[in-house]
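Write out the bound-state structure for adenosine monophosphate.
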Amino acid sequence: MKILVINCGSSSLKFQLIDSESERCLAKGLCERIGIEGSMITYAPEGGEKEKTETPMPDHTEAIRLVLEALTNAKTGVVKDLKEIGAVGHRVVHGGEKFSKSALIDEEVLKAVEECNDLAPLHNPANLIGINACRKLMPDTPMVAVFDTAFHQTMPEEAYLYGLPYEYYRKYKIRRYGFHGTSHSYVSKRAAQLLGKSYEELKIIVCHLGNGASVSAVKNGKCVETSMGLTPLEGLIMGTRSGDIDPAILEFIAHKENKSIDEIMTILNKQSGVLGLSDGLSSDFRDLEAGYHKGDAGAVRAMKTFSYRVAKYIGAYAAAMNGVDAICFTAGVGENGPLVRSFVCEYLGYLGVTLDPKANQTRGTETVITTPDSRTAVLSIPTNEELAIARETVRLV
Ligand code: AMP
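---
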C-alpha cells in the first residue's frame, strides 16, 4: 500500500509518499510560506532531481492540492492515479490524555484533537487544518492521526505529575506529556533489533537531540519517563529553547528588564538554548562544532553545557529504571555529532560505557559506538518519524 505522510505546520507542510511493503520513500517534499507571499513547493521523487517551484498557496487546501498534483504529474510523479494512495498518516503534536495510541480519523477523533488545542496552541490547530484540507481533496481515503505524545502515555503518575496544587491537574490536566514520541518509540525498538534482544526485556534511554531535544526512558517496551513536559520547553537545553530553569527566573527577568510574560516566553523559546549560551553565535550545531574547533569561547560553553545536561538526564533515567542496557543518540545532532556524543559519554564511565572513538565518527548510520566489552551499549540510530507514521497508518487501516 502507498501511504502519504503529512506533517503540517502553521505555514509549512512536509510530505512523504511511502510504499509500505518495501518501506521505500517514493517521493518527498515541502510546501513553505503557505498563506504568505512567496510560497514555494519543493518536490523530489526517489532517485530524481529535486525541483523547487514558486507558486501561490493561499491556504493549506491549495498546498495539498499541489502536493497531489506533483505526486501524479505525468513526467515526475510517482503514482498514476490518486486511488493508488491507500491511506494518509498525519502527524499530530498533542493528543493529551485522550490518545495513548494512533487513531483512525473520524468526526469524534477530530473533536477530541480539537479539545487538545489549548495544550498546543501553535501546533494542533495547524495539524487539524492539514487533516481537513486532505479530507476535502481525498474524501474516500482513510486517514490516521499519529500523536507525538501517545508513546509517553504509559508514564506512571509519579513521573508525569508536577509538584503543583493537584487541582490544576484535575481542572486543566497540567502534567508532563512529552513529545517526539514517534521518534522515541521507533529508535528504542530499532535498538532492540540491532542488539538482537527482546524489546520487552530491555532498559533503553533515547536521546533525541535535534533543534528540539528530549530524552526518554523506555523500560520493558514502555515509556516510563521523558524530559519534555506540558510543552516542549522543559528538559534539555535545545537549539533556541532554555529547557529546565528555576521558574522564579521569569519574575526576576520581568522586573529587571521590564518585560511581559509573553516577551519572556519568546526569550525562553527563541533566544535561549545553545543560541543564547553561545552569546548569539548560532543555534546550529554545525556552526557550534566549527566554533569549538576554532576555540570560540561561546561555542565551547554551549557545547559543554548542552552535553552536561544530557548526561545529567541519562543519570536520572538510569536511576528511574534501576539500570540501563542501551543508550541511543538520534535526530540531527545525535545522528551526526561525534563531538556531543563523546562529551556525553565522558560522564558515563560509572555505567561501564567505553566509547569506540572510531565508531563514534559515524554520521547518519546505524552504529554501535561503544566497544564490544562496554557494559552498556551506546548506539547512534537515525530516526525515521515518517516511516513510523506510515507503519502506524497501515496497522490501523
Ligand atoms: P533536527 O531538528 O533533528 O533536524 O536537527 C537539527 C540540528 O542537527 C541542527 O542543530 C543541526 O546543526 C544539527 N546537525 C545536522 N547535521 C549535522 C552535522 N552533520 N553535524 C553536526 N550537527 C548537525
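---
Residues 210-211, 239, 284-286, 289, 331-333, 336-337, 363 surround adenosine monophosphate (CB under 6 Å).
The chain has a mean pLDDT of 96.
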